[in-house]
Amino acid sequence: MAKKKNKSKVKTGDIASAPKTKTVEVVEAIDKIIEPTYTEQAIKEVTMIEKYQEGKNQSIAIRTFFDSDVENMGLENYEMSLFEGVVHEEELTCLEINGIKRYVTGLNEFAPEIRKLPPVKREAKVREIRKAVATLERDLAANIIDPEDPEFWNKVKLLRHDNHDFWSKISIRLGNDPVYLDPSTDPYDLIKIYAIEAGGFSIVAKNLADAKGKPDCKFYLDKLEDTVGTRTEVSKLRNRALAALTTMYDSENTKLFYVAKIVDANSTQYNKSTANDVIYENMDDFIHGDGHDRNQRRSAQLFLDTSRLSMEDLKLKAVIKDASGYSLITNKSDGWIYYGSIKMGKSPAGCLEWLKNPLNEEHMMSLLSQVQYYWDM
After folding, report:
1. Alpha-carbon Rg for the chain in angstroms
2. What is the pTM of this model?
3. What is the dihedral of CA 225, 227, 229, 235, to 10 degrees?
4. N or C: which end of the chain has fewer CB within 10 A?
């Protein structure tokens, strides 16, 4: 007889009580790990970026220098010297003569520029340099030195003139943003200030006045006390021009009329019936750089120089300008300015001298009467 196969029956409770496999354990562990968490509070930013410039005294800084009179790919219109993101970096200047290297640090009392000073100034400069070097040695190398010590330089460790490892690492990195230098808290800022004043960085002028006389200069050392006078030059010039404008408006209306004719590009808009208030307003805008010339310094200077001319020169200059505007005088290809068939000169200044010549008085009166006709309209 065939034997019946025994089939084992497993109850549901037995399955539940059976031990978990490793796979089940891993899955449950992953579920616990990736289980989302919820919070009722908004998540706050916790990333903090420490800025080196924060907390520094801003009375001394290296700033960008731009000249609105010099074209620089349009950057001068936005008071910028460099495109956004562009930086200039330069190491400290090193001069090598006969294999001997000398860094231009401003902290070397044996440098040629120090030795050339008069005895009194040289002694004061040496005292200043030693005091600065002693301070830097204390802060950077924990080396205490007496500036009056006869063996001073023999005891200097870090700022020795031949310490190329140290001086070769001094560099400066500049962009459109100002770089503040606080020598009271950062010894390296003090080193950079001395180096800049000694000419150790070619890309940085010693001050604002030096930057204006330095071609292609992009940066300058701005000391608030030293440059405030230079910065207010335009304001002072503008105020003098405004004072001259007010004086002419109050008591010299004819002179104001001639000055406006000379300095305004659209001189033919003025005639004898033009209200003085209109001329005053236009000249006020011109002085502030809101006329055809946007340079405030040049506009104010031109107005001031013109206002100081004699009445004769003012009238004749106004006549020459408007005569050109009314096509009464013309420039020809030979380089001369003609009144009819008569050569007057090769420039407005030459025409002025020609009109002032007594021999040409008849032509001068003729030209004046023609221009006067338009002025009286």
Report:
1. 39
2. 0.53
3. -130
4. N
